[in-house]
Amino acid sequence: MASEVGKGRVTAAVLIIGDEILSGRTQDTNLRDIAKYLAVHGVDLAEARTVPDVHEEIIAALDALRTRYDYVITTGGIGPTHDDITADAVAAAFGVELYEHPDIIDLIEARVRSRPGLEMNAAMRRMARVPVGGDLVRNPVSGPPGFTIGNVFTLAGVPSIMRGMLEDVGHRLRGGAVTVSRTVRVEGSGESVIAAPLEAVAKAHPAMSLGSYPFFDGSLYGSNLVLRGRDPDELSATIIELVYALKSAGIETVREIDAP
Amino acid sequence: MASEVGKGRVTAAVLIIGDEILSGRTQDTNLRDIAKYLAVHGVDLAEARTVPDVHEEIIAALDALRTRYDYVITTGGIGPTHDDITADAVAAAFGVELYEHPDIIDLIEARVRSRPGLEMNAAMRRMARVPVGGDLVRNPVSGPPGFTIGNVFTLAGVPSIMRGMLEDVGHRLRGGAVTVSRTVRVEGSGESVIAAPLEAVAKAHPAMSLGSYPFFDGSLYGSNLVLRGRDPDELSATIIELVYALKSAGIETVREIDAP
User: Fold this and answer.
1) Is the pLDDT of residue A97 over 60?
2) How, if at all, do strands A221-229 and B253-256 pair?
3) Residue A61, helix vs strand vs coil
4) How far apart are CA A90 and CA A104, in angstroms?
5) A50 contacts B51? CB cut-off 8 A
6) Per DSSP, what are the bridge partners of residue B43?
7) How many Cβ atoms sit within 10 Å of the Cβ of residue A227?
8) What is the pLDDT of residues B180-222, one digit of tens each?
9) Which chain B residue shows the shortest CA-CA distance from A11?
């Protein structure tokens, strides 16, 4: 893996938030995914903690970790229900207020408009709350984004969404090697159809990281294929090969959604 | 979020020791197994930490956890190699020496005798080391036992062996009341619709723990609502109220999936 660059080892901690992990109901897999992702970016995962959905516990763990390590990544507790209190705890730890981010409100409104009979409600508005001074972390999968403030990144707990959000974290890390990321969007085809061409291209380009992030927004389904690597030229070539392989497999609707 | 009933909640923490977890090379599954095991014994898993194979880090985490919770269960780092330093760290935390336990030496000798060409070596002897004042934790699977000292149980990291050792832990725990769990399944409605009725019922029953766990299996979506508490009668009443509240909110497909 990469690489202590210059003087310093760059370190991170993961804070897993959720009663469902501590009760044994849910098997956490985010820790492993984050560890691997950080390694690619030259960041060492130094510690992990799992705490319940309790305001004071989240703040105490967050403060212990964010003062000791370069970065903290939290997972879980950013949904619409009353036990989703991560945003409140992060804001309290940084001593700032929460506000409804207009971009997230716009996202939710667009979604609501697309489904007859659905109306914006208080639960949905909860998911638009971001600490003052924070930035958004893009969510390429479904639903509202995560956010970052200071050295803390607050991501979803659902593994597929968490992995998608991670793609918008790496480029902000003072890490080892810098990676470039581009996204190919497939609509109307499921992962079972995408898997074979994706795997073939992945095998031909071992230096590239290829991830598939399926989405379903209530009517439209498909997958965002995120490609990441250190060499922009190989990345461009890989994108072209992947689109060709997908089309050859009979997948019609393929397009790049964040071309440079 | 859940809520302590009566006088005595009994709490535990898990300390996962191992670079292989923090590097992402190994997927931990012990936390979930321990959580489920403790729940059956009426002990709440209140926190978990994962630390690297570093003497001072293990001691610091162990001291933080063993002073705060009724029990600590450690996993990992009790094998024969140089990076297996859990026994050293536990002994140091309790301020005692390690000694070679005669029962474990006997076990290893019996094993060595049964395999021609094998000889007792220093690596094997490492696994016989137990803190002075500690007791053994039986290993019904393979290899040497774990140990316990004070309120700490030190178990293997290999999942099958860890689960076997756990069976010799439960009867030593001063357990609280056993909690009962039941699940209501909602299909075809998302969390944004479920949130309000769920929250209303949660507020009316602070002694119950209510969690919402959304699912999407490719075509069907919805959420499993898990209710947990110590009083089976209140749990039954809460289930009825919740189903009524969900139906009143216009949610059609609601049913209990693990009725007693």
Assistant:
1) yes
2) unpaired
3) helix
4) 18
5) no
6) B10
7) 26
8) 888 899 998 888 889 999 999 999 998 888 878 777 766 788 8
9) B22
Which of A37, A45, A81, A111 should one mutate to test binding to chain B, selecting the residue with the greatest count of B CBs within 10 A? Answer: A81
Q: Does domain A180-256 have CATH number 2.60.410.10?
A: no
Strand partners, B149: B152
Q: How far apart are CA B253 and CA B247, in angstroms?
A: 8
Query: In terms of C-beta density within 10 A (0-12 exposed, 13-18 middle, 19 or more buried), how is residue B115 classed?
Result: exposed
Are A98 and A91 contacting, i.e. CB atoms less than 8 angstroms apart?
yes
A14-72 pLDDT tens trace: 999 999 999 998 999 999 999 989 988 889 899 999 999 999 999 999 999 999 999 99
Question: Exposed, middle or buried, B222 (CB in 10 Å: 0-12/13-18/19+)?
Answer: buried
pLDDT digits (tens, 9 = 90+) for A126-141: 999 999 999 999 998 8
Contact B253, B188 (CB under 8 A): yes
pLDDT > 70: what percent of chain A?
93
Could you give phi then psi for residue A203, rounded to 5 degrees? -70, -35
Token pair, residue B14, equals 């898990």
End-to-end CA distance of chain B: 24
Q: Where are the domains of chain B?
A: 10-172, 180-256
Pairing mode of beta strands A44-51, A11-17: parallel
Q: CA angle A165-A148-A105, nearest 5°? A: 75
Structure tokens at A97: 């207020």
What angle in degrees, to the nearest 10, is found between the helix axes of B159-166 and B30-40?
Answer: 20
- Reply yes or no on whether the pLDDT at B143 is more than 50: yes
Strand B209-216 with B180-187, pairing: unpaired
Instruction: List the 183-242 stretch of A: residues with Cβ below 8 A of B.
Output: 190, 216
Put simply, whether B51 touches A (Cβ < 8 Å) is yes
By Cβ distance, the residue of B21, B36, B192 closest to A124 is B192
Name the one residue in this structure whose structure tokens are 């995120």: A226
Answer for the pair A190, B218: CB distance below 8 angstroms, yes or no: yes
Question: Are B57 and B18 in contact, with CB atoms under 8 Å apart?
Answer: no
- Assign A114 to helix, strand or coil: coil
CATH of A11-172, one of 3.40.980.10, 3.20.170.40, 1.10.10.10, 3.30.470.10: 3.40.980.10
Crossing angle of helices B191-204 and B232-248, in 10° steps, is: 140
**What is the residue-averaged pLDDT of chain A?**
88
pLDDT, residue B83, reads: 77
Q: What is the model's pTM?
A: 0.78
Chain centroid, CA B163 distance in Å: 10
Is A151 part of the contact surface with chain B (CB cutoff 8 Å)? no
| Cβ B155 vs Cβ B146: under 8 Å | yes
With respect to CATH, is domain B10-172 assigned 1.10.1040.10? no
